[in-house]
Queue: 3 jobs
Job 1
Amino acid sequence: MSNEDYKVADISLAEFGRKELDIAEHEMPGLMATREKYGKEQPLAGLKIMGSLHMTIQTAVLIETLTSLGADVRWCSCNIFSTQDHAAAAIAVTGVPVFAWKGETLEEYWDCTFKALTWNDGSGPDQIVDDGGDATMLIHLGVRAESGDTDFLEGPASSEEEQVVFDLIKRVLVSHPGHWTKIAPKIVGVSEETTTGVHRLIQMEEKGELLFQAINVNDSVTKSKFDNVYGCRHSLCDGIKRAMDVLISGKVAMVCGFGDVGKGSAESLVNERARVLVSEVDPICALQACMTGYQVTTVEDALPVADIYVTTTGNKDIITAKHMSQMKDQAIVCNIGHFDNEIQIAELEAMPGVTKTSIKTDDIPGGPVDRYTFPNGNSIYLLAAGRLINLGCATGHPSFVMSNSFTNQTIAQIDIAKNADRKVGVFRLSKELDEEVARLHLGKLGAKLTTLSQEQADYISVPVDGPYKPEHYRY
Ligand code: NAI
């Protein structure tokens, strides 16, 4: 740790981080092309951009793309376990303030978010890059408290983490009076990375509480149909293997949820030759799972047979403490959705007679892994303490897929800067930009695109240069 304007685990890891950044740049053609295209114009010049997004090597390339377009950036992670310490160090030595390390406590996590949101002169950001909506939520709660509605801070909080957030807001009310109402009106907009964050933004918009414009990056086709699917296909089993070093082949795996992340996760497991079961509430997604060849059933029915459980729903209480007490001995439980409330961990720890043994802490490769033993002698393994397995126990998605997501992020930040007076609401990027992101990644894969003739374009009623699909097309 350091007294400089950053807080990372070990600044001496910077050189190693830089070497991995160099490798990642070659795998992130969209971001490098965006630097090239907008470098001269400097569309983010003078703008303060705060990011709350997993501080990985890939994110480091995003940060350097934003700074190369003129932005003044501060960063924190959006998960206590997802920081790659060498990536954080490599960025910190360039003078970009980073507040992130692997294995933060909840208090440290929220303090880092506050620090990343607060420039040294006390000002806040013009724009935010958010993943899961924690930075946006903190600002909205802070404004609510400073506007006189402080009752909610007295709780009861719905979780230990919510209590930590309430305590932070109370501290800031005293230490930085007027902070939130000073910084919030200057914020022009946020670009949101993930399904869960978009869900939060839409809830705020519907209640009329949203304070600034938001770009829904997640629902660019080149984000959710790539990162959520192919990213998880790569990184789910990577995480399980690093955590447990277990053979997945032949085991029965239960995937809860068959949306984009569920589809990628199921494929990750089936590629390892697991037998995959799926649970769903949506009949369309359930039917898709059946058509792909998976058995659709409930968690309850999977209990006697499943060896591995993966939650992918973005919903809560998917695997209950009772479920875990009835699983097969040595079952593996993990979550790849954004928040850890998909699995009832607090309830599990409160169950009479349950004992917890730490197998690997978060500073050991593949950790954290914990074993919970029940009074009947059976045990289960919980990976990444129920937080995102792929970022907690492994290194998240690979660079190429994140290049698609982060090119959307960069374009969204430029779009917010260029449309600073846009009304408050949640918007998506245009299909032209979505197609552009895909186009930027084809060359690297040696793909050769076919060009429509004017006659063909007229026949199917699309412009020769696109967009090629109507808005309602589902890909
Ligand atoms: P989605 O909305 O496409 O899929 C979620 C699915 O879960 C839906 O089909 C829904 O019907 C189903 N579901 C909801 N409640 C359920 C229940 N009780 N039982 C069974 N199924 C249920 O969302 P998406 O894009 O797949 O994202 C899921 C989560 O993963 C979100 O929290 C998102 O933020 C996160 N995410 C994580 C990533 C990672 O790298 N770990 C990458 C991208 C997203």
Note: The two ends are 46 Å apart (CA to CA).
Job 2
Amino acid sequence: MSQTETTKLNRYSSTLTQEVSNPAAQAMLYGIGLTESDLDKPQIGIASTGYEGNPCNMHLNGLSVYVKQGVQANDMVGLIFNTIGVSDGMTNGNAGMKYSLPSRDMIADSIETVVNAQWYDGVITVVGCDKNMPGAVMAMARIDRPGIMVYGGTIRSGHYKGQKLDIVSAFEAYGKKLAGNISDEDYKGVIQNSIPGPGACGGMYTANTMASSIEAMGLSLPFSSSYPATHEGKQNECRKIGAAMKRLLELGVTPKDIITRESLENALTIVMALGGSTNAVLHYLAISRAAGLPMTLNDIQAISDRTPLLADLKPSGKYYMEDVLAIGGIPAIMKYLHGQGMIHGNCMTVTGKTVAENLAEAPDLEFESQKIVFPLSQPLKATGHIQVLYGNLAPRGGVAKITGKEGLRFEGIAKVCEHEGEILDFLAKGEIKPGQVIVIRNEGPKGGPGMAEMLKPTSAIMGAGLGDKVALITDGRFSGGTHGFVVGHITPEAYEGGPIAFVKDGDRITLDAEGREMTLHISDEEMELRRSQWVKPAPKFTRGALGKFIRSVKPADEGCVTDEE
Ligand code: FES
């Protein structure tokens, strides 16, 4: 490496390692074991959300060691640091889930903090759960130094009595238990066998949605989202990251060269084609803002309108993410869509090549031999499954996931739950009946706080056999594992005096996914009367992480970001 190259590649870390006015920093770097020649090398922060407490993250510190080996092998210094992760599968609507969405911005803040404060020349994020990935990408966009995201990989499916299982199987077993539809032995059997080891939840839920679409956006290596956590390809990917990072440093390619309007469209096209999570809407609104290219709900709707649903993946379909690798992974799907003019090929990626150049090496998607991804001539649904609904219930929008299996229109009678937990009480008492629109409110970004995911309610409804007989609307969110006629992200939220706060039991509600409307059938005068009688609730938290989140979070239609005025 010439001195000119060295200076270029270590332009940030050289502030600490080369300037004579920083003897303490240099002493500390010798103290951690670096040599004199190491101080000339670029320094790469390796941010891991590894922790032992859940399957999505339990292996990430191990993968980070492989990443570091690859970085060191390419004549750079790799320095691992940790940030937090919160497992959405191990939270509870009345406690932990309130921290889930806030954790995304805490992760972004913490990665930004370490990389900027310690003057790293680049960052590799090793992440593997719902909020970790958007949090990492938001940080990478803010920092805008060469960066690559490594996905920890999807989980393998579990098995019990000849059936494949995943985390949603465990949630739905609870609904079956409430409805008396499962024996104690089978209930235990499902829980003990749903999760066979490391990896993120295995359907096209939020983690796999974000991993697939971030790969499509160009911020992770091809196949990063397709290798399961325990696949040898995942370790190989980690070892290859060092060479890719070196190339990015040499080319001077940063995340803002990669995150562009067109690459965001590529990401969201993949979300739509795969039937991905509604959480992707929230996260891409936030990522686009972090990159200085703010998208709106209508931008996302436009992508949904022009992108057919092609993949028969869980939660609404049959297959798991582990099955996608066998048909050529996300690169094969992207190659097909690119060939059909649906993916922008000119976008830069972390390989240092464009999307089109990467896809030239990708396998072809064969339609004769598989039923996981369908051709554009035979889509599962002619347009995307994400629908933004507006109306007097959601003046600034609500986000629905409509795959077609749940119908396109639902008209019913409101059953109001003042918080997520209340529906479980109603279910246990037999008060949830066919024909109801269940309204779960006070779960928005500020009111929840944290916009809890309604996985437990929707899974319990499914387990109780009411999945196609009721609809559910909320100012909270849905898990990527949710299916059924559901509309979330309703904005303004109840806490801010949104109309969802004024719904009463027995009101008639229409949800029209085709006309993209959600209507509370009361007169304008009645709406105003209820508004005048409404009293804003006190914030549930005023101190600590959640108190800060309530004060700083933007509404769902602005991605719930916390770093804007
Ligand atoms: Fe981590 Fe599902 S809880 S991916």
Note: The pocket of FE2/S2 (inorganic) cluster is lined by residues 56, 87-89, 129-130, 167, 200-201, 207 (CB under 6 Å).
Job 3
Amino acid sequence: TPLVELKNVSKVYPATVKGAPDVTAIDDVSLRIDAGDVYGIIGYSGAGKSTLVRLVNVLERSTAGQILIDGRDVAGLPERELRPVRLGIGMIFQQFNLLNSRSVARNVEYPLEVAGRDKATRAARVAEMLDFVGLGDKAGAYPDQLSGGQKQRVGIARALATSPALLLADEATSALDPETTHEVLELLKRVNQEFGVTIIVITHEMDVIQTLATKVAVMDQGRIIERGDVFDVFSNP
Ligand code: ADP
Ligand code: ADP
């Protein structure tokens, strides 16, 4: 079965100003992402990319359609049953979203605490993840002592700590310079290849898709206007 499947999903936000029209952020989108894929979703600002991410990790509810994660429809699940679903999905962000009052190690440990792992398991996993991202020597450092690229590597270590099958990367390199972007994309490639983690890459940058993704959907005004293998979609006839 596909790992993520959207069937005719729509998301309508009610008008924020009286008399203004409702906003259709996602408009009848169907999408299938297989386990092991690195799937890019590209589009201009306002296309609906972030809304799509928030629907997949169930931070928001769709207005219509089905969202299947590992074959299970999450759209109708009650809140208490969403916790294990969310723990199976890692996220990384444009602004890294690290806790500045916590050390690097304690940031990576955080999702393991939420998941209820015991102390010894947490410590071993934190060390393993920091080694994987090349920050074994920064465990005791604080986020504001790190470069942007190092912060995102901590973000990746944190996102993968609970061994999720799916990683959502929402503009994860948009705040980084080109060289650091390249390093982070290479690391994400390893995450896919060595751990078999499925990755959904949200971006407005074609370079990011071409470096990392194998499949791509192009979004515009809440719809998928083109999709396919990256090579086919971006090759000019
Ligand atoms: P488009 O994607 O532009 O709508 P396609 O010819 O690619 O046109 O697909 C036609 C329909 O088939 C889509 O609207 C969608 O409902 C379904 N479809 C195509 N590709 C996929 C996919 N990867 N995952 C899920 N549904 C798909
Ligand atoms: P993208 O990530 O591609 O920039 P978004 O998903 O953020 O696009 O936004 C898609 C559309 O939905 C935009 O028109 C945006 O203004 C609207 N939108 C997003 N979030 C909300 C919200 N919480 N309330 C109302 N409208 C929203």
Note: The radius of gyration is 18 Å.
